[in-house]
Amino acid sequence: MDHDTTASEAIVNGHTALGIEFGSTRIKAVLIGPDQQPLATGGHDWKAKFEDNVWTYDLDAVWAGVQAAYADLAANVEQAHGLPLERVGALGVSAMMHGYMAFNAEGELMVPFRTWQNTMTSEAAGELTQLFQHNIPQRWSIAHLYQAILRGEEHVADIDFLATLAAYVHWRLSGERLLGIGDASGMFPIDVATGTYDTAMLAQFDELVAERGYPWKLEAILPKVLKAGEQAGSLTEEGARLLDPSGTLQAGAPLAPAEGDAGTGMVATNSVARRTANVSAGTSIFAMVVLEGPLKRLHEEIDLVTTPAGDLVAMAHCNNGTIDLSAWVNLFGEVGKALCAQFDTKQLFETLYRSALEAAPDGGGMLAYNYLAGEHVTGLEAGRPLFVRTPSSEFTLANFMRTNLFASLGALRVGMDVLLRDEGVQLDSMFAHGGLFKTKGVAQGFLAAAMNTPVSVGEVAGEGGAWGMALLAGFLQADGASLTDWLATEVFADAEIETAEPVKADVDGFDQFMERYRNGLVIEKTAVEAL
């Protein structure tokens, strides 16, 4: 793409790339131009439902949500540039990783979408981990499939296509059952040498379930795996109408391989090179560490996945991110409104977050758990949000906020200790993105303290995932460059990055908090049993 093209020319001529991401609470759309920077954005809020003990989203909500996000984007394009959005040069879809969507030969979803939030597959995950000698988290598609088999669910015999949310949306837009390697690595283990599913493990699984007589082999019902830069079909007429029922958007644009939100976060923070890491904090919180080689041994706290380019990644994934923290902030907001105070949401968050900078380094001797859901990293099948203090705790607003901010990083620290301390993994850089880091100088510094590693935040820290997917769509035109080199030279060469170094007092304070955190897990386990 011509970097001298104006925004209007890029929109008219389709010298653009569109990224769409289905997050846990928001569907985002970002249109970028030849300079890889956003021309316009759009969005739509949505949320999961908890029905029959399953966290799920309706398919109608998927399409209503993406149409609303796209319409918002198109309206913003017209408002900002005075042009209708009739075509895009390339596009790609990203979504929350893992989960279980099982379709029959007629393309019908046979059971409700089981999202990554569900912790219902411990038996299957445990058996498969031992069989493969490869950690299989409860969230992974293969764990959900095998658990359904163990439960004797009738629909399993009729599975024609097993998908993640990103794979499903890509299929409907393009007619192709294809998936990016990063998201595919959350369905079934990947052999990084071949760039596709591990054939030995596929054979082990087929043998494991052979006596059940299913009419399919596992590889046949999984999406084909592609790497970043490979074209994954084109937008069909039906797909164009699914995105834009108005009929304005033209079909024909090439699609990038669909990816998971972890992969797009890596791209959006320029963290796809070896010895780099990124932390994404939203409904869940996870760290992606690009490895130089395999780990020394099996760790059930660590997922092994890949970058969108196919390099091995250690993923420390925690189900519970910032929702409980936001609930406390909103509670204080209700108090403010009851007192007729005048403030907006941004001011509320910034004021409360910044108060934590005045706290005792360890949070004043208090303890919190943000566990709305189960947390496999610490061995919890279910969660109960808790705040605990002793009579001698320093119960101030500043300490309260620091304790809850620390709690949002607690489970992540448990997982990262496995990599940094037990495995001796080396990091050159760590980037952070997500809503937790929108207030400058607070959570970024606390993460640096938690990991005792410098942490950088860039300009797109708050809304990076959809932009990361747009970049992967733009990478289709990279003419053979590696993803690492292309990002370094074409996207991030002049990026403004702010880096926070770990402060010793905060590092020591977080270590003290973590000692309480580990010792107090018995309280959390008792709460789950009692409530």
UniProtKB/TrEMBL annotation:
Cross-referenced CDD domains: ASKHA_NBD_FGGY_BaXK-like (cd07809)
Boundaries of every Carbohydrate kinase FGGY N-terminal domain copy: 17-243
GO molecular function: kinase activity
Coiled-coil portions: none
Transferase as UniProt keyword: yes
GO biological process: D-xylose metabolic process
Pfam family, one: FGGY_N
Record bears the keyword Transferase: yes
Superkingdom to which the source organism belongs: Bacteria
Carbohydrate kinase FGGY C-terminal domain location: 277-474
InterPro entries found in the cross-reference section: ATPase_NBD, FGGY_C, FGGY_Carb_Kinase, FGGY_N
This protein's UniProt keywords: Carbohydrate metabolism, Kinase, Transferase, Xylose metabolism
Family according to the record: Belongs to the FGGY kinase family.
Annotated protein name in UniProt: ATPase
Native organism: Tessaracoccus flavescens
